[in-house]
Amino acid sequence: MLEDFDFLIGQWKVINNRLKSWMSDCHEWYQFESQHTEKKHSLGSGNFAVHQYVFNHALYERSILRKFNDHHQFWEINRMDQMSSLALQSLKGTFWKNKGSFISRGLLNEQEILVWAEWTKVNSNFAYWEQSVSNDNGATWELNWIMDFKRIS
């Protein structure tokens, strides 16, 4: 379990497809490239990542801390991102048969939502991540961000 995210250690080129407006019946997407660097945390209990991209001619950086909760056997993921209008609690979840599912509560434009992120198609050179949001406590979901990871080194 503690090695679940080790596939991400290294440098990645990422193709992002991000919905232009969330929870507003929008069907237009932005596409942009980003760079992702992941390292094992020095204490050995998780990973730390930096995700950088240029969006609307401005450089953005997202820092991600993934920590494994050994007592409860799940991952806690915390993200810091200056671009997002999403206030998010820690994502929590686990991997099962090469698929990782993580969920959290958050606020988007002062509205309570659920956020669900999944890792699939994971191998040493490629990974697929997607995020969905729900404003009806999970009855329906809106896919709002997709990332295709391709290893650089």
CATH superfamily: Calycin beta-barrel core domain
Averaged pLDDT: 91
Please mark out the parts with pLDDT under 50 across 5 or more consecutive residues, or reply none. none
Helix/strand class: mainly beta
Domain count, please report it. 1
**How far apart are the first and last residues' alpha carbons, in Å?**
23 Å
Count of alpha and pi helical runs: 0
Order of helices and strands: EEEEEEEEEEE
Examine the secondary-structure arrangement and name the CATH architecture: Beta Barrel
Strand content: over 45%
Question: What brief labels describe this structure?
Answer:
65% strand; DUF1579 domain-containing protein; Lipocalin; mainly beta; 153 residues
Task: Tell me about this structure.
- This protein has about 150 residues and is mainly β.
- It has one domain (about 5-150): Lipocalin, CATH 2.40.128.20.
- Helix content is about 0%, strand content about 65%.
- The radius of gyration is 15 Å and the shape is globular.
Task: Present the secondary structure layout.
Elements lengths: L9 E10 L9 E12 L5 E10 L2 E12 L4 E8 L4 E3 L2 E6 L2 E10 L2 E10 L5 E9 L7 E10 L2
Antiparallel strand pairs: 1-2, 1-11, 2-3, 3-4, 4-5, 5-7, 6-8, 7-8, 8-9, 9-10, 10-11
Protein name: DUF1579 domain-containing protein
Organism: Chryseotalea sanaruensis
Summarize the structure.
The protein is mostly beta strands.
